[in-house]
UniProtKB/TrEMBL annotation:
It holds the Pfam family CHAD. InterPro entries: CHAD_dom, CHAD_dom_sf. Residues 1-17 form the signal peptide. This is CHAD domain-containing protein. Coiled coil: none annotated. SMART domains: CHAD (SM00880). The lineage of its organism: Bacteria, Pseudomonadati, Pseudomonadota, Betaproteobacteria, Burkholderiales. The keyword Signal applies. Keywords: Signal. It comes from Pandoraea anhela. Transmembrane segments: none annotated.
Length: 311
């Protein structure tokens, strides 16, 4: 892969990501007011689509110098829209399947009937929002736009000659592999630097700042994954594994924050709400402490530099 031009590598990776784009049903308008048609979107389809959009957003970010600016802006905005549309449904599923069941085991005396009723309404609203987005013309148009942007043929392969989003070679950093190696080096280094100083002072960050750090960690991780050929195995594995572990821990922290926000609207006794919120505070503190320990295992800047391939 290191011998490929940036444009060819980009469309090849984009075509691979698009193979994970699941077939989605189209919403049909009811024939009458008495005819209510429900479009069922499986959790697996949502999961596949989240993976595809995540990979595509990373590719568009990493290879932005090889994309026409207007295509870059449009694709980035549309993928962000789709990702945000699926966010509440994902949060509600985590609440229902992970966060709240754990709390239920610890605090069986809470009014879980009221909690379940509230959560059912919450999940219904979130699923409706996700379904509307995933079955909309906008989602279908985005899929078609991505195929056009990266020249993806019917057989799943990509063609540089038909890819509409690629810039002319004269306006890019260059076609030679060495130009891409320099770009890969710069991207990995920039994403690494962006993690500091926050990753060294997690205990001083509030939940919003921790969420922002988690976004930076995801960007660093996904960029490193997209640029794997330019990272030696000796540095790639510990770097990506550390970022993945920290992202997971901060994800648990974010799930606890989402649960606390839900508690504010729960129709249960104040004492029960405070008890659950206090337990979630403990989860947040523990996740923060563990994430700080994990991030201390990041390789130093010199080791990262030595681990990057030059060509």
């Amino acid at each position: 892969m290191r011998s490929m031009s940036a444009s060819r590598l980009l469309i090849s990776l984009a075509a691979s990501a698009l193979t994970q784009w699941p077939p989605l049903p189209t919403a049909c308008a009811p024939a009458s007011e008495d005819d209510s048609r429900v479009v069922d979107i499986s959790p697996e389809s949502v999961h596949q689509l989240r993976i595809a959009t995540r990979r595509l957003r990373a590719l568009i970010d990493v290879f932005s110098p090889w994309l026409k600016p207007r295509w870059h802006r449009r694709l980035k905005a549309e993928l962000r829209w789709l990702g945000h549309a699926m966010g509440p449904a994902r949060d509600a599923d985590v609440l229902a399947n992970e966060t709240l069941p754990a709390l239920r085991l610890e605090y069986p005396d809470v009014d879980w009937i009221a909690v379940d009723a509230h959560l059912t309404r919450l999940r219904s609203t979130a699923l409706e929002q996700a379904t509307q987005a995933l079955t909309s013309e906008r989602q279908g148009a985005l899929h078609g736009l991505l195929i056009e942007a990266f020249g993806v043929r019917d057989d799943g392969r990509a063609d540089v000659g038909t890819a509409k989003a690629l810039r002319r070679p004269s306006r890019t950093p260059g076609k030679k592999p060495r130009a891409l190696a320099r770009h890969a080096h710069n991207v990995v280094r920039e994403r690494y630097i962006a993690l500091f100083p926050d990753c060294r002072q997690l205990a001083m960050l509030d939940t919003e700042q921790l969420h922002a750090l988690r976004v930076k960690i995801k960007q660093a991780r996904y960029s490193a994954e997209a640029l794997t050929p330019w990272m030696r195995k000796s540095i790639r594995a510990p770097y990506q594994d550390t970022l993945r572990a920290a992202q997971t821990l901060l994800g648990h922290l974010n799930d606890a924050v989402v649960a606390q926000r839900m508690l504010e609207d729960l129709p249960i006794a104040v004492a029960q709400r405070d008890m659950l919120s206090g337990r979630l505070d403990t989860i947040i503190v523990n996740a923060t402490s563990r994430a700080a320990h994990v991030l201390c295992q990041l390789p130093d800047a010199q080791a990262l530099e030595r681990g990057m391939r030059r060509g």
